[in-house]
Request: fold
Amino acid sequence: MEEVILQVNHLSKSFGSNQVLRDIDFSVRKGDVISIIGASGSGKSTLLRCINLLETPSSGEILYHGKNVLAPGVKAPEYRAHVGMVFQSFNLFNNMTVLDNCMVGQIKVLKREKEQARRHAMEYLEKVGMAPYIKAKPRQISGGQKQRVAIARAMAMDPEILLFDEPTSALDPEMVGEVLNVMQALADDGMTMLVVTHEMAFARDVSSQVVYMNQGVICEQGEPEALFAHPQKQETKDFLSRFRKG
Amino acid sequence: MNEVPELYSDILYLLDRYGGAYLSGVRNTLILALTATVIGCLIGFLCGILQTIPCAKTDNPFKRFFLGLLRVVIRAYVEIFRGTPMVLQAVFIYYGLPYITGGQVKFSNVWVAALLVVSINTGAYMAESVRGGIISIDPGQTEGAKAIGMNHVQTMLSVILPQAFRNIIPQIGNNFIINIKDTSVMFIISFTEFFAAHRAAVGATYKYFPSAVIEMVGYLCMTLIASFLLRWLERRMDGADSYELVADDQLVMAAGTYNHPDKGTPFDERSKEYREQARQELKYGRTRGER
Reply:
């Protein structure tokens, strides 16, 4: 078995009186590609945002290599530099070119030399097929292209694990494929990934584990073949059948 | 109808006798307005940044108290200096400071006092503009920066402030133009700017209206040039509307000639299915809606 990178124990999150996550337990091993599926409002995105500390969990612990990142004294920016994140709305820096978007984190956070950062950024921009566009500003490129740049930006930080928060939900249907292709290639390269998605085909074909969330709890979890072919819980069956019809 | 030639000759007379005074007035006004706007912007940015430091319920009580205190202080500064006339602020600072300190603090140079008054006044207005500018930036930008491990200062300096700055250039321009005009109240502390030249000239010649014409035209010229320069700065910051595609080697160039980058990438070709699909597309045209 590969080493456990991330372990989530009894994680809960409430916004006021509204409890969004309830007692979540799961772990991520090196090389895992875990898809998190579930209806809107089931807490998938909140879980991902808690893992990246963009939301502060109400209780529970998040162990990164066995160390609780919620403990006082742990610097969130340092931890986040190891955990990449790709957002539904891309969140590229609008004031920078494509290349600068992929360099700024390396220079400011990892303190790399400019030239080294540029080479490293170009490596990933080439991988996602955005190398010709390095001089463009985010407003000048399409959604699919933005998302590919966002993936390159996250990868350029050499994260140990990459979180995807519905990376294709804001894209036109024609552009979904190009982003999923890039993600598939990352998975093939052995990248550890945690993907919140509505793309059932991606969850089934690419991931090594599928987590089904319902109303803030992990309802069912397992290998994709098993979970999609023989869901154990009634809620999972209902959810999957709704998707097949839709 | 001999008023117009008379006005003309009066203006010429004033310019001939007091031209130097008007010119040095213009120079002083511009230097004061420009410097004070720049310093005021710096104060405004500082206040804006300090006011928007995130304060979570989970932070330790000391930090929360300190941040709360900071916000109250900045709030008070903004309200006091925005809510009182600049003429009175000038009097308070230039005459009031030596008065209450028993001559311990006094201004040897009227420039220092004038700069101080106009700067902190501009700063009070800019603090609000900057705060608005920072709040108006999509929270996604902050999250994107946080997600790659930037701390608050790095996020502000590299991502948020450049965008906020672009958005509040019109406000900075507003303040600059207001400063060009409003520095005229600095005559109260005997600062010799453009309007002081008018007071000197009419004091000696009683030619109120001709001198006022010179003043009007002078102020309008200064503000028009300032507007023009600011528009130019805005356009410059927006950058070019188009961008160049970059190709490092011949292969990429050649690839671009038959395969538009929108349609696919070398990376995509790793997938067998995609290659087949691309082939079909070339043969039968693109089909939409299949995923």
Observations:
- Strands of chain A lie at 4-15, 18-29, 33-38, 59-64, 67-68, 83-86, 161-165, 193-196, 209-214, 217-222.
- Chain A touches chain B through 55 residues (CB under 8 Å).
- The first helix of chain A runs from residue 44 to 51.
